[in-house]
Amino acid sequence: MPALSHRITTLNGDGSDGWDVFYRARAMIDAGTPVTELTIGEHDIRTDPSILKAMYESAVGGHTGYAIVPGISALRDEVAARVEAQSGVPTRRENVLITPGGQAGLFAAHMAVCGPGDVALYIDPYYATYPGVVRSAGAVPRAVPTRSSQGFLPQRDVLEAASDGAVSLLINTPNNPTGAVYPRDTLEGIADVVTERDMWLISDEVYDTQVWEGAHLSPRALPGMAERTLVIGSMSKSHAMTGSRIGWIVGPEEVITCLVDLATNTTYGVPGYIQDAALFGLRAGAELEAQVAAPFLRRRAIAERVLAGQQAVRMIPAQGAMYVMLDVRATGMSGEEFAFALLDAHHIAVMPGESFGQSAAGHVRVAKTLEDSRFEAALRTLCAFAAGLAQAA
């Protein structure tokens, strides 16, 4: 067989893709062993029936052919209006490209701003696909470390030290996996560095409807940042439409024009009936988004209550998103060791912090994606298990 390309064989670097615990849990389930899954960010509710009805009506109405590649005009207008209302930055449909989910948006954004061999930064901890996305664009990934003791917020001096020779920086707020919501001063420091170094900023804002403390601020709204920022959005988390694969990129018109060319040669757009469903979902307004977000706010309170009564596990303040990050270093284990041990002992699956970078070593990420009573029971078991390990350490 002829050789595969270096790009495709090196997407994961020299190591694992970070999903080993998840794969083992799924293998256990396939073998008939019940597992309590707290791994991936998949809602325990499904897409709202009203959105599915709109999708169905669009499909049977004939919107099943090729859709215009940049996205249907009505949806681009709706996204533009939404982003303008949130950020205060004038935004038109020409600033919007509809993509097959936020993941495709991340890939396209890096293809737009990174050339072969360019250095692209991202904050550690990071969503597990970030380094692979950078490599898939032909760029070289470079992590910017953060500290658990500082709430995993990027520090300006560390960012400055990492930014030599870099062309872009990828940030994510509200953050997966940490739950951090970047405050204004953190974002202003980021803006200063990317402006001084003449870098692009790629802002992953797919959790913007899940803010429990503070407020979401898009860096695109800061002075001088609209012309150097690409914002990634998605219907996946805000409307429980993970499987529908629909998102967007918002950025300068010249960049979007080039990204339309990329989409023409890769995805060739998003099915029209899915776009119509997304348009219906966005027009349903904040009430529907609040309904989708409500369980995660409620389970955050459950986690705080459970974690408050013990010493073996420390909860990182969860200001947003659908996860809690737990420090399990008191057990004497790495996050990966703890996650595998918990899975084997109690059939509870969580994600090791190391799946999201070395800054999260000794932590685990717990998805708040189970019904309340089951979520609480799993957390109590996790804490009791950690307490036993900590006593033995």
From TrEMBL:
Gene3D superfamilies: Type I PLP-dependent aspartate aminotransferase-like (Major domain). It catalyses: L-aspartate + 2-oxoglutarate = oxaloacetate + L-glutamate. It is an enzyme of class 2 (transferase). Its cofactor is pyridoxal 5'-phosphate. GO terms for molecular function: L-aspartate:2-oxoglutarate aminotransferase activity; pyridoxal phosphate binding. One of its GO terms (biological process) is amino acid metabolic process. Residues 34-380 form the Aminotransferase class I/classII large domain. It comes from the Bacteria. It holds the Pfam family Aminotran_1_2. Its EC number is 2.6.1.-. SUPFAM superfamilies: PLP-dependent transferases. PANTHER family: ASPARTATE AMINOTRANSFERASE (PTHR46383). Belongs to the class-I pyridoxal-phosphate-dependent aminotransferase family. This is Aminotransferase.
